[in-house]
Design brief:
The structure holds two protein chains of two kinds. Chain A is of the alpha/beta class. Chain A has one domain: Dinitrogenase iron-molybdenum cofactor biosynthesis domain (Nucleotidyltransferase, domain 5, 2-Layer Sandwich). In chain A, the strands form two sheets. In chain A, strands 4-3-1-5-6 form a five-stranded mixed beta sheet, with helices on both faces. A two-stranded antiparallel sheet of chain A has the order 2-7. By secondary structure, chain B is α/β, with parallel strands linked by helices. Chain B folds into three domains: 140 residues, 3-Layer(aba) Sandwich (Rossmann fold), CATH 3.40.50.1980; 124 residues, 3-Layer(aba) Sandwich (Rossmann fold); 143 residues, 3-Layer(aba) Sandwich (Rossmann fold). Helices cover 45% and strands 14% of the residues of chain B. In chain B, helix 2 links the parallel strand 1 and strand 2. The N and C termini of chain B lie far apart (57 Å). Classes of the chains: A alpha/beta, B alpha/beta. Chains A and B meet through strand 6 and helix 3 of A and helix 3 of B.
């Protein structure tokens, strides 16, 4: 069991960029005990409107994160949130240390979930 | 114990936001999911006789609207932001932070957040009211205790003679609470008491709450809700309390109530007796004036009583209807699940007042089935209850009056069924329903269209 997570980060240590302005996206595989390993680092131009991004840029970005269960980012706009939701990708808006945030996400994902009777 | 019930009559503990809104000057800050606060307002105010928004809030209460994000990372920073924002833009004298299920399950330390603001001089109180902890009767009492402990605080009491704090009906959950508290205050002032009524328009609001430690005594007008508060105040401020478990309705019970209060408070008995005599004369003058109507329409009068209300309101109403108006109690259902000692006290109070069967039942589906079975094909019943009971009355061709929640089809302002005035209101509403809710025929006059 594990989950692939995309993280907007300038240094690989902290979540410090919003989704639209991120220039680097780390893709990690997160295990239930909170350990993680990077599988990819995407370098890219910022996507957001103010940065001159287009719908094609967003589509390309979505293609690159399409296998992820969630995106961990500092902030994401409504349109991005809706678009990612359509692709069943969850968004967590939380800045700070990647290690601690991923630990909390792993605890959340591994919680026992009861199915409706 | 887990159980599913139909037709719920009360809300979860977070419903105590309505108790906060009932204090002039106080504002709730809800740390719960989106929808919790507005649904509780919908149940206890909008769907309860359209009682309005209280001091400030209604469906616009400050809320953290916690979501999945807060479940994963904790919602304390969001709560801090919302408290900060509320303090900045809302004009309140007291802010009460109430938590919902989500915050309490994930373990947010909401009380610490409130304490931190209080330590910086802000009038902020915190109380955990996660829905799984109890119903809004429980939440109401938790809110009062939190305000006493965290806001009124450690005060050396300077007792003011002939002043009383009143703890009684639940604001909003009792649709007539505003009128009831006005009548209770009027009665106690008639004895010569200064009254801290604490909730509603007749209260001086937060200032009155600060005066709680200095009252000569506390009056608990309820079988069990409020008992922990009275005990807390006795321990904290050494204030004794009179526990009168039955809400007085009508002439006999109200006079008994006033005599007990007067004796407990050591008031001048002549003043009390003069006041009671004047009130009784007025009450029974009106009462006797019903004689013509009762004799003319006696073939139509209801004689069997069914009542669905909470344990604060139900015993007083049914005692009046049974003991002063002669109704036969066929089904009395108390819906708020009072604690065991409250139940024993209610049973003892009822046995002192004619002794009739009462049922503690929160499941509206079971209540409905029992009422339908007992009524059978009869048309001599009046059902006092909520909008749910209206359907039973209409189906079976019997009368109904609204006295409890949910209450979606009537507007409630200053109506009361408490005290002398409440007894008169109840008689007028009860007998007027003969003409509005079924075909009624006079013995001597012929009405034609």
């Amino acid at each position: 069991m594990g989950w692939r997570i995309a993280i907007t980060s300038s240094d690989g240590e902290n979540v410090d960029q919003s989704f639209g302005r991120a220039t680097r996206i780390y893709v990690v595989d997160l295990s239930p005990d909170g350990e993680y390993a990077a599988v990819d680092v995407l370098q890219r131009p910022p996507y957001c409107d103010q940065c001159g991004g287009t719908r094609n840029d967003l589509n390309e970005l979505l293609r690159r994160v399409s296998g992820c269960r969630a995106v961990l980012t500092q902030k994401a706009g409504d349109f991005v949130q809706m678009t990612l939701a359509e692709h069943d990708i969850q968004i967590f808006e939380q800045s700070g240390a990647i290690k601690e945030n991923l630990l909390k996400i792993s605890r959340y994902y591994r919680r026992p979930v009861k199915s409706p009777a | 114990m887990n159980a599913l019930i139909e037709q719920p009559r009360y809300a979860c503990a977070l419903g105590a936001q309505q108790s906060v809104l009932a204090i002039p000057g106080a504002l709730p800050i809800v740390h719960a999911g989106p929808g919790c606060s507005s649904k509780l307002f919908g149940f206890a105010s909008f769907g309860a006789g359209f009682q309005g928004e209280g001091f400030g809030g209604g469906s616009h209460v400050s809320s953290t609207n916690t979501d999945e994000q807060d479940v994963v990372f904790g919602g304390e920073s969001k709560l801090n932001n919302v408290i900060n924002g509320a303090l900045r833009i809302l004009d309140g004298e007291l802010f009460v932070v109430l938590t919902g299920c989500t915050a309490d399950i994930i373990g947010d330390d909401s009380l610490s957040a409130a304490r931190d603001f209080a330590a910086r001089g802000h009038p902020v109180v915190g109380v955990e009211t996660g829905g799984f902890k109890g119903n809004n009767y429980f939440g109401h009492e938790e809110v009062i205790k939190a305000i006493v402990n965290q806001f009124v605080g450690e005060v050396e009491p300077v007792p003011r003679p002939r002043t009383v704090n009143v703890f009684s009906v639940l604001p909003y959950q009792n649709p007539f609470w505003r009128g009831d508290l006005e009548e209770i205050k009027r009665l106690l002032e008639g004895l010569g008491l200064g009254v801290n009524i604490l909730f509603g328009g007749g209260s001086q609001g937060v200032r009155e709450w600060r005066a709680i430690p200095h009252a000569a005594f506390n009056l608990l007008l309820s079988p069990s809700t409020g008992l922990e508060t009275a005990e807390l105040l006795r321990a904290k401020y050494r204030t004794d309390f009179l526990h009168y478990p039955v809400l007085p309705v009508g002439g006999a019970e109200t006079s008994r109530f006033l005599r007990e209060v007067s004796a407990f408070a050591g008031l001048d008995s002549e003043t009390a007796e003069n006041f009671i005599a004047g009130e009784e004369k007025r009450f029974y003058d009106y009462f006797v004036s019903l004689a013509d109507f009762i004799s003319e329409y006696r073939n139509n009068l209801p004689s069997e009583l069914y009542l669905v209300a909470d344990s604060i309101y139900g015993p007083g109403l049914s005692s009046f209807l049974v003991n002063e108006l002669g109704f036969i109690p066929r089904g009395i259902y108390l819906t708020d699940a009072p604690a065991d000692r409250g139940r024993r006290l209610i049973e003892r109070s009822i046995s002192e007042r004619g002794g009739f069967q009462i049922n503690f039942e929160s499941d509206g589906g079971l209540i409905e089935a029992d009422i339908r079975r007992r009524i059978g094909g009869g048309h001599k019943a009046v059902i006092l209850g909520s909008s749910w009971e209206k359907f039973i009355a209409q189906d079976t061709g019997n009368l109904y009056l609204y006295v409890s929640l949910p209450l979606n089809e009537t507007v409630v302002l200053n109506k009361t069924y408490v005290g002398y005035n409440g007894g008169l209101n109840l008689m007028a509403d009860l007998y007027s329903s003969l003409f509005s809710r079924k075909t009624t025929t006079s013995r001597t006059q012929l009405f034609t269209d």
